[in-house]
Amino acid sequence: MSDAVTSGKGLWTGSYYNEGHGGHDGLFDKLKEECGVFGVFGHPDAASLSYYGLHALQHRGQESAGICTADADNFHYFRGMGLVKEVFDQSNLPTLVGTSAIAHVRYSTAGESKLANAQPLVFKYREGDLAVATNGNLVNAGEIRQQLEKQGSIFQTTSDTEVVAHLIARSKHDDIVDAVKDALQQVIGAYAFLILTKDKLIAALDPNGLRPFAMGKLGDAYLFASESCAFDIVGGTYMRDLLPGELLVLDRNGLTEDRFTESQTRATCAMEYIYFARPDSDIDAINVHSARKRMGKRLASEAFVDADLVTGVPDSSTSAAIGFAEQTGIPYELGLIKNRYTGRTFIQPSQELREQGVKMKLSAVRKVVEGKRVVMIDDSIVRGTTSLRIVNLLREAGATEVHVRISSPPFQNPCFYGIDTPSRKDLIAAQKTIEEIRQAINADSLYFLTQEGLIDSIGRKDGVENGGFCTGCFDNRYVTYVNDSENAVGCGC
């Protein structure tokens, strides 16, 4: 473990521990997703639909939220810091009139945490008003920004999204669709873009399809979302996922299916299936919960261990734990309970209270695990600090053995496509062998799902190389150019 973990330094913001907010959660070193986008075209209640759609995507970003609507004459927008329910109320939501909208929830990683970076970003340029929202990260945004600044561009934010807006504004094309194509052909990375004008809604997905992006319908209205679960909450119907390199345009003539570039190697982020997406979402017509259950079943086949019960670390590991239990016949139990009401905890950051922090968020059920051999299923190990704390929670509750099974391969490399990851020196799997990790987390045994097992479990059948997934965080095979520096780059949106 690093000095920051053993000494307790670096885990607090100011005088309090702000759970789930800021660079990373020091007590719970889970990866952080980047952002979520939601779009509506052709519905009189576009703002209300966006509000509920953002609620469904809240897990993808809790730092800021924003909605921009368009009617025939004007844009109407509101953005704020905090959760969706904290940003929007009866004083501002009714002012967002119009039949089209784009909306955004943000978790900043590369960009700074401030209102100026909250999205959608709204601009005025020679062809009129423009609003942009994105989920992802552009790996060449810094280089483009430097070039634009040398040419006189002035940036108001630290967001990658503004880089694309400048490219659109500076395009030689007057037509907005051609200008967007021109801009997107200059950027590299992972992105799902929603671009709004007074009479058009444009949706575009990066050439590798790294980020999830789905299209749905509600009556005659079109919907777009980072995850299909957002359609369910507004009563919409999932139609399909956008294709890599695809650009869809909605205007008074209806839907136009177009492209801004040819698709490249299909490489959907594998971590969406493992951890980030909600279990009730479908990505490329594959249900996330079902995929996670298959991961658990495959884990059981690859690394069976005789035990008395199986438990998952809530919530993202529950599906895999159920699959492991079904495959082995070992009972699944709620051995760990998540406290959903911790929020911000205004306490002095003493070492003793830091050690208590994990118990504020997670509890072991003593009457379930006491005297039992426990298989603990988790989706990943990042720094190892969380796994150690949870294993010790189970031991303190009386578990006689704790066997850890991870439903993904070892996380050894930083992500450059929009996931908040530490640098390699802080990734425990990049620094230690599996046996050394087992000792570090105090487990009786430890096994990671093989990469082959992961790809087979997700179950895409189209025969694309590597199953059609980006697995760079596991195997260091990135699908685009990346500037592989010491520090990882998270979400730039």
Automatic annotation (TrEMBL):
<keyword id="KW-0328">Glycosyltransferase</keyword>
<dbReference type="InterPro" id="IPR035584">
    <property type="entry name" value="PurF_N"/>
</dbReference>
<dbReference type="InterPro" id="IPR029055">
    <property type="entry name" value="Ntn_hydrolases_N"/>
</dbReference>
<dbReference type="GO" id="GO:0004044">
    <property type="term" value="F:amidophosphoribosyltransferase activity"/>
</dbReference>
<dbReference type="Pfam" id="PF13537">
    <property type="entry name" value="GATase_7"/>
</dbReference>
<keyword id="KW-0808">Transferase</keyword>
<feature type="binding site">
    <location>
        <position position="269"/>
    </location>
    <ligand>
        <name>[4Fe-4S] cluster</name>
    </ligand>
</feature>
<dbReference type="GO" id="GO:0000287">
    <property type="term" value="F:magnesium ion binding"/>
</dbReference>
<keyword id="KW-0658">Purine biosynthesis</keyword>
<comment type="pathway">
    <text>Purine metabolism; IMP biosynthesis via de novo pathway; N(1)-(5-phospho-D-ribosyl)glycinamide from 5-phospho-alpha-D-ribose 1-diphosphate: step 1/2.</text>
</comment>
<feature type="binding site">
    <location>
        <position position="379"/>
    </location>
    <ligand>
        <name>Mg(2+)</name>
    </ligand>
</feature>
<dbReference type="InterPro" id="IPR017932">
    <property type="entry name" value="GATase_2_dom"/>
</dbReference>
<keyword id="KW-0460">Magnesium</keyword>
<dbReference type="InterPro" id="IPR005854">
    <property type="entry name" value="PurF"/>
</dbReference>
<keyword id="KW-0408">Iron</keyword>
<keyword id="KW-0479">Metal-binding</keyword>
<dbReference type="GO" id="GO:0006189">
    <property type="term" value="P:'de novo' IMP biosynthetic process"/>
</dbReference>
<keyword id="KW-0315">Glutamine amidotransferase</keyword>
<dbReference type="InterPro" id="IPR000836">
    <property type="entry name" value="PRTase_dom"/>
</dbReference>
<comment type="function">
    <text>Catalyzes the formation of phosphoribosylamine from phosphoribosylpyrophosphate (PRPP) and glutamine.</text>
</comment>
<feature type="binding site">
    <location>
        <position position="470"/>
    </location>
    <ligand>
        <name>[4Fe-4S] cluster</name>
    </ligand>
</feature>
<feature type="binding site">
    <location>
        <position position="415"/>
    </location>
    <ligand>
        <name>[4Fe-4S] cluster</name>
    </ligand>
</feature>
<feature type="binding site">
    <location>
        <position position="378"/>
    </location>
    <ligand>
        <name>Mg(2+)</name>
    </ligand>
</feature>
<feature type="binding site">
    <location>
        <position position="473"/>
    </location>
    <ligand>
        <name>[4Fe-4S] cluster</name>
    </ligand>
</feature>
<keyword id="KW-0411">Iron-sulfur</keyword>
<keyword id="KW-0004">4Fe-4S</keyword>
<dbReference type="GO" id="GO:0051539">
    <property type="term" value="F:4 iron, 4 sulfur cluster binding"/>
</dbReference>
<feature type="active site" description="Nucleophile">
    <location>
        <position position="35"/>
    </location>
</feature>
<protein>
    <recommendedName>
        <fullName>Amidophosphoribosyltransferase</fullName>
        <ecNumber>2.4.2.14</ecNumber>
    </recommendedName>
</protein>
<comment type="similarity">
    <text>In the C-terminal section; belongs to the purine/pyrimidine phosphoribosyltransferase family.</text>
</comment>
<dbReference type="GO" id="GO:0009113">
    <property type="term" value="P:purine nucleobase biosynthetic process"/>
</dbReference>
<feature type="binding site">
    <location>
        <position position="316"/>
    </location>
    <ligand>
        <name>Mg(2+)</name>
    </ligand>
</feature>
<dbReference type="InterPro" id="IPR029057">
    <property type="entry name" value="PRTase-like"/>
</dbReference>
<feature type="domain" description="Glutamine amidotransferase type-2">
    <location>
        <begin position="35"/>
        <end position="253"/>
    </location>
</feature>
